[in-house]
Fold YgdI/YgdR family lipoprotein.
Amino acid sequence: MSALVSHRTGVPFPSQKEFAHEKLLTLGLAALLLTGCASEYLLITNNGDVLTSYGKPELDKNNGLLEFTDSEGRIQQVPQDTIKTVIER
């Protein structure tokens, strides 16, 4: 079976296997770039403690707690009224 060739450029089209490989590589690079976009945030409490959040903390409106993922990957919750400042690093 002969390869399909573009009538404009004369360049052969990639095979299904090559296309799948390129698609997988593109998706992998996109995932890598997106994970690199997550920022660190510092949460400074009213008593001066500093908590580090990987990704933006989110407020749970049902219970008034700020939820965030700490540097070890654990999900933490703290009362919103105990946080004095949130700084994006």
User: Anything to note?
Assistant: The CA atoms of residues 5 and 12 lie 4 Å apart. Residues 1-37 form one domain.
